[in-house]
Amino acid sequence: MLGYDADGFVRDGVPHRVVAGAVHYFRVHPRLWEDRLHRVRALGVNTVDTYVPWNFHELPDGTVDFTGWRDVARFVRLAAGLGLDVILRPGPYICAEWEFGGLPARLLAVDGLRLRCADPAYLAEVDGWFDALVPELLPLLASRGGPVVAVQVENEYGSYGNDAGYLAHLRDGLLRRGVDCLLFTTDGAHDTMQQGGAIPGELATVTFGSRAPERLAVLRRHQGEGPLTAMEFWIGWFDQWGLPHHVRDPEETAASLDELLATGASVSLYMAHGGTSFGLWSGANHSGAHPLDAGYEPTVTSYDYDAPIGEAGELTGKFHALREVIGRYLPLPDGELPAPVPRVAPQRLERAEGRAALLAGLDALSRPRQHAAPLPMERVGQDRGLIHYRTRVPADRPELPLRIDGLADRAQVFADGRPLGVLERNSPGATLPLATGPDGVVLDILVEALGRVNYGPQMDDRKGITRGVSHGHQRLFDWQIRPLPLTDLSALRFTDDGDDTGDGTGTGAGPGDGEPAFHRFTAHLPDPADAFVALPGWGRGLLWLNGFLLGRHCAAGPQHTLYAPAPLWRTGPNELIVLELERHGTAVELRDEPDLGPVTAAPSSEY
């Protein structure tokens, strides 16, 4: 059991220092969990910590799943088998640069529900999550012989609000359901954050990445005695589309860790291994004062985080620098360091074997719903993906500006099937010119959701079109709406290069730029191995491997390869499907090294 006295942590009656590393099981293929945990143990840590994302475990039909990739108990037991204690951070909110901070998108469809406070509707939802989750956790607690020594109550709440009653409800809910291990809170190294997020009588911890004595002094002002703990010691940072790849100098990072450990404090390295936000699980930040202001910043698919253990399990220079520091304070594990993971021999797939136009294939992807006005994704039961809107603009109209109010996040607009232009969330006042002839115009709007805001006050981030569409000063009504979660592409009809319309007529000349289309490639592998898939010359879209959505590709970068771990590959032929929304390329490359883009090295003062 882990507890604490006036001086610090005590484990089974003996003074103890927690040196942990963060690993998110939901960002690592489950067949690689043991490998990554083995590498984290080799770093020298004695504990692993992980979030538990509510929206990852709650399926679209409302059931809560703890099997397969979602088998958090198996992950915890694997950690225990390697001699690691475990810290769990079950939310309900986790941040983590994860879609909607771990909350289910359906909460945004409930009229009047207020997030992360003592609103009865929200508390009822949270209680339902805890009712499903806690029974899975109880056998894992140290009090019952398991490895879980501590559980977090909420996450960085002081960065969001100050509802003490809400925090007490969460704490009391965990206790009432039988969670009898150490409970704690985590907040930034600012007085207001500690004030807003702390729970009287429970351990408070702090997040930062440098200047440890200064940051720990903030914590000590609010917690007069007991262990000082940096629950997130940021040794890297995440990336956002269109900005450089963040890195942090290994030697400077190691010096900051040494400074922290020299104070006697405990620590969790965020991240020890970052992994990948596969599929559409990446979140976003927002720097504006209103959810629809410019300032929306979506996060890339890779969560490499410039961590000591890279996205594909590589032991980096930062790994060796941090391991040397940890070895000054804790005994390092015996044995050789883990070997590199095998990677593919590079190959280039020169030509797609089939194509399917998205607009022509709508009936294969979704059923239409008729509504008077556009509705956001959440109101039609959709959490992630794309959503399509169609209406007819009346005949004989002069050229007038077409405007979308409440766009989240990127809209491709088509007039009678031809690309009219693109509108984006960060340019809320932008318009497109549209005139109509004697037959009017069929207006198609394809909206791409790029991840819900996961941090700060703008988390009520509904996707699609939340207000309406205007032509001139007149609102357009009578809409056909198709949710496009893109979870099943099996009904798509792919045709060869002689038939690029996707409807079997054989009259197509290939999709032009701005005409969304799926492209199918086949890669042959002698044996499964890790690969990094690159799309040189393409614009933006999504990439599937053998039916599994790897994530987003975007020429704006910084990320230019998508990690495809060995368990997703097969011996022999493998299917790759590219959804291209903007600029169609011709080839797909399998590489043996990642390309996360040009780097920017932030000074340590920014951590």
Description of the structure:
This protein has 607 residues and is α/β, with parallel strands linked by helices. The chain is 17% helix and 29% strand. It has an eight-stranded parallel barrel with strand order 4-5-6-7-8-9-10-12, surrounded by five helices. Helix 4 links the parallel strand 6 and strand 7 (148-152). Helix 4 (120-137) runs parallel beside helix 5 (164-176) and helix 8 runs parallel beside helix 9 (317-326). The longest helix has 18 residues, at 120-137. It is globular, with a radius of gyration of 25 Å. Residues 498-507 have low confidence and may be disordered.
The averaged pLDDT comes out at 96
Q: Kindly state the percentage of residues in helix.
A: 10-25%
- Please give the alpha-carbon distance between the first and last residues: 32 Å
- Helix tally equals 10
- Fraction of residues in β-strands: 25-35%
Largest sheet: 8 strands, parallel, barrel
Unreliably modeled segments? 498-507
Main-sheet strand order equals 4-5-6-7-8-9-10-12
Number of separate strands: 34
What is the structural class? alpha/beta
Q: State Rg.
A: 25 Å
Global shape = globular
Key terms for this structure?
eight-stranded parallel β-barrel; 607 residues; single chain
In short:
The protein has ten helices and 34 strands. The strands form eight sheets. It has an eight-stranded parallel β-barrel, surrounded by five helices. A six-stranded antiparallel beta sheet has the order 17-26-18-23-20-21, with no helix packed on it. The chain has a five-stranded antiparallel beta sheet with strand order 16-27-32-29-30, with no helix packed on it.
